[in-house]
Amino acid sequence: MSRPMPDTPAPALSLPLSGGGTWTLNDPKPEHFTMVVFYRGYHCPVCKSYLQALKAVLPKYRDAGFDVIAVSMDDAERAAKTVSEWDLDGLPVGYGLTRAQAEAWGLYLTQAIRDTESAVFSEPGLFWVRADGRLYMAAVANMPWARPDLEFLASKIPFVLQNGYPARGTVS
């Protein structure tokens, strides 16, 4: 598995949005960052809690100049259920992530162990991409409960912006 390197161009990403339209990374350009939150899919109760927490802190990220999207390998029907049943109105939800796209982002892939799961789905990942398209931060997990704390991350935005804190992990 390869992984994208910080401070280099982020992998391309363009997906349909639940509710209509298409989302493309850095189109339009955010003021500071785009935060891409990859989640496992509709079958995941941990994802439900995490995305509901994301919706709750979404104003903090938007006020700080972030565009935010949640993305999964789910199909349109499952993505629509995610938005409606998890009460995610206002949070852009992209669907149809391909295996090749997931691999380009360095996400772990899992084969279903239950009938309610998609046959293959990506495990969680959270990325900040600079407005110029360079990857700034990457957090990738192979388990549903190993995810960054969204409130804690939001609390670090002023430090990052005020101090021009550089991307880390750029050596290897």
Automatic annotation (TrEMBL):
Pfam families: AhpC-TSA. PROSITE patterns: THIOREDOXIN_2. InterPro entries: AhpC/TSA, Thioredoxin-like_sf, Thioredoxin_domain. GO terms for molecular function: antioxidant activity; oxidoreductase activity. Residues 4-162 form the Thioredoxin domain. This is Peroxiredoxin. It comes from Aquabacter spiritensis.
